[in-house]
Automatic annotation (TrEMBL):
PANTHER family: SPHINGOLIPID DELTA 4 DESATURASE/C-4 HYDROXYLASE PROTEIN DES2, SPHINGOLIPID DELTA(4)-DESATURASE DES1. Keywords: Membrane, Transmembrane, Transmembrane helix. The chain crosses the membrane at residues 23-45, 51-73, 183-199. Residues 48-289 form the Fatty acid desaturase domain. InterPro entries: FA_desaturase_dom (IPR005804). It comes from Thalassococcus arenae. This is Fatty acid desaturase family protein. The keyword Transmembrane helix applies. It comes from the Bacteria.
Length: 313
């Protein structure tokens, strides 16, 4: 049962649930437009400031691609099914080394068993609250690329396991099998296209500087902050108002930390198939019904990190 049915009428849910191909196209174009615009800004005015700005904005939009893939996993990005599957997989998931069908299976299990022992995301939320020193170490590992490199290495190792048992030093054939498998094969094709586009404009190294580097650093940082904000340091409960959190994001936070209304996570868990652009409306609707005091809401992401690091040293 959709948890939101206990608080919303069928007509209210229906009014918020309409999909739109135009909305889906706009969100995908907006996300890639910010990515390409950041690269163009550096190309026109190359200096350390525009380089840093590009890495941060692109990393945030790589999170944006993950969020749009998440929309597609709920069949909410496009109204037309094949467009939803194609864009969610090839335009959003594969460039950041993600797989839409695998993610969908995993993520729907999270919705079914949120904050219970059967929740596959419990490993992300259960360590919180932690100490300030522990949180600081985690964030440093993220921004310096240590987390990203470790995860990519695990992803490659998983690809080998998908290809079959590989003992000792992998051969060229083993390598080819691993990267032609379902986990990384299409992701490599998508990244090869991005590399080819940069090569075509005479700057192949832009792929390393403005795709790989953000993916290993800023993307990992904001991905962790987003995960903490959603289910970190909340109640271990089946109450949908207590086992997840909505964070009221400022315009700067929406640009750099929480694109595409991902901060309205409590509302998303109440009715998971509502398109993201309607989640603010749902938030206002719940408050109008007098449910605001029941909702777990943070005033911003700094407050979330404070709540997540309250364990004494």
């Amino acid at each position: 049962m959709t948890p939101g049915k206990a608080f919303l009428t069928s007509d209210e849910i229906r009014s918020l649930s309409a999909r739109s191909d135009l909305w889906g196209a706009w969100l995908v174009v907006h996300c890639w437009g910010l990515i390409l615009g950041s690269v163009a800004l550096f190309a026109l005015w190359p200096n350390p400031l525009t380089f840093l700005l590009a890495v941060v904005v692109i990393g945030s939009r790589q999170l944006g691609l993950a969020i749009l893939m998440h929309e597609a996993a709920h069949n909410a990005l496009f109204k037309t099914r094949w467009m939803n599957e194609f864009a969610g997989d090839w335009l959003c998931g594969r460039p950041i080394l993600a797989d839409l069908p695998e993610y969908r299976r995993y993520h729907l299990t999270h919705h079914r068993y949120t904050q219970s022992d059967r929740d596959p995301d419990l490993r992300l939320s259960k360590p919180f609250p932690t100490t300030r020193a522990s949180l600081r170490r985690k964030l440093i590992r993220d921004i310096t690329g240590q987390t990203g490199i470790k995860q990519r290495a695990q992803q490659i190792a998983f690809a080998f396991r998908m290809a079959g048992e590989v003992e000792g030093q992998p051969s060229a054939q083993d390598l080819a099998q691993a990267f032609s498998g379902p986990v990384l094969g299409k992701a490599i094709v998508a990244n090869a296209v991005i590399l080819a586009l940069f090569w075509a404009i005479g700057a192949w190294w832009f792929w390393l500087a403005f795709w790989v580097l953000p993916l290993l650093t800023w993307f990992q940082l904001v991905l962790r902050v987003r995960n903490i904000a959603e289910h970190g340091a909340v109640a271990f409960s089946d109450d949908p108002f207590r086992n997840t959190r909505t964070t009221l994001a400022s315009p700067l936070e929406r640009l750099l930390l929480a694109p595409y209304w991902v901060n309205y996570h409590l509302e998303h868990h109440l009715v998971m198939h509502i398109p993201a652009h309607n989640l603010p409306r749902l938030h206002a609707m719940l408050k109008a019904k007098g449910l605001g005091d029941r909702m777990t809401v943070a005033p911003g992401y700094l407050d979330v990190l404070r709540q997540a690091s309250t364990r004494p040293a």
